[in-house]
Amino acid sequence: MAGWVAKRFWKGVSVAEDAGGFAVLLDGRALRTPAKRPLILPTGPLAEAVADEWRAQEGEVRPGTMPFTRSANSALDKVEPQFDEVAGMLAAYGGTDLLCYRAPAPAALTARQAEAWDPILAWAAEAFGAPLEPTVGVMHRPQPEESLRRLAERVGALSPFQVAAFHDLVAISNSLVLAFGVTEGRLLAEEAWELSRIDETWQVEQWGEDEEAAEIEAARRAAFLQAARFYALCG
């Protein structure tokens, strides 16, 4: 059984309204999550995106080619049952946000960080009433408690499906502010990705690109952009 793989057994894939949301049907039978919960999606477009992944499977079922399905399963099986813990973990990134930790040198890098990151911090301060204070170096600097509270409230107001996508936006970028920049429409996902990689881009400019590191970066970029697409389809 070690070599066993799932194979496509269905002929048709469709979407139908169900239980206040949308279900994906394989030959008329609704999909369930790995934990056997009904896979009910919050919007029709998201359900269609999941359905398209199942339509695209030929022969062997390849879970790695089904990121929308994977995120939807995570929303129901992992995020919803422990929503407060997941939301709290993500909100905690506000206390150590990437945009707040600046290099002490060289001057060209510190200038690049300030030019790129200061406007986004200023936007978050105004949009959420949550100013965060940058510091130089890697030593932890406590952020204003009121700012962290307001950011946590924003995270807590998201739906489980939104949090499933938001988790990847935050964890991959190491920035709560950049994630909100994407979800609030202040930044395009590609812009936010580039802003999160300023230090890495600087290193490549100085020392050249490592092929293995470049492959890892490409995979992380794809996951970040995928999370943004999933979030946008949540409604």
From TrEMBL:
Keyword Repeat tagged: no
SUPFAM superfamilies: ATP12-like
Keyword list, A-Z: Chaperone, Transit peptide
InterPro entries associated with the record: ATP12_ATP_synth-F1-assembly, ATP12_ATP_synth-F1-assembly_N, ATP12_ortho_dom_sf
Pfam families: ATP12
A GO biological-process term: proton-transporting ATP synthase complex assembly
Family note: Belongs to the ATP12 family.
Descriptive protein name: ATP12 ATPase
